[in-house]
């Protein structure tokens, strides 16, 4: 159980880091190319990446409590 929990934390931190850094990079590109070096695209895209990572972590940690069932009917 503890090893599973540790793997989930590692996966969550790695996923959140990748999404936040990707959002930061996209925000920098948008800021330089489209918005004349304003700062709000950088913070918006970074926040979107952080939020997506957080949502994925929430889903991963709540997944043991989800009920997955298949109903098979006999014919």
Describe the structure.
Helices cover 73% and strands 0% of the residues. It has two helices and no strands. It is elongated, with a radius of gyration of 19 Å. The relative contact order is 0.16.
Strand content: under 5%
Strand tally, please? 0
The best one-word shape is elongated
What integer is the average pLDDT?
Answer: 84
What is the secondary structure topology, with strand pairs?
Layout: H1 2-33, H2 40-62
Helix pairs in contact: 1-2
Q: Main traits of this protein?
A:
0% strand; single chain; elongated; 75 residues; mainly alpha
In short:
The protein has 75 residues and is mainly α.
């Amino acid at each position: 159980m503890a090893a599973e929990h540790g793997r989930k934390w590692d996966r969550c931190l790695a996923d959140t880091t990748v999404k936040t850094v990707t959002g930061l990079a996209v925000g920098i590109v948008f800021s330089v190319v489209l918005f004349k070096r304003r700062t709000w695209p950088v913070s918006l895209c970074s926040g979107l990446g952080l939020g997506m990572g957080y949502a994925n972590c929430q889903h991963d940690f709540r997944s043991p409590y989800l009920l997955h069932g298949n109903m098979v009917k006999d014919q």
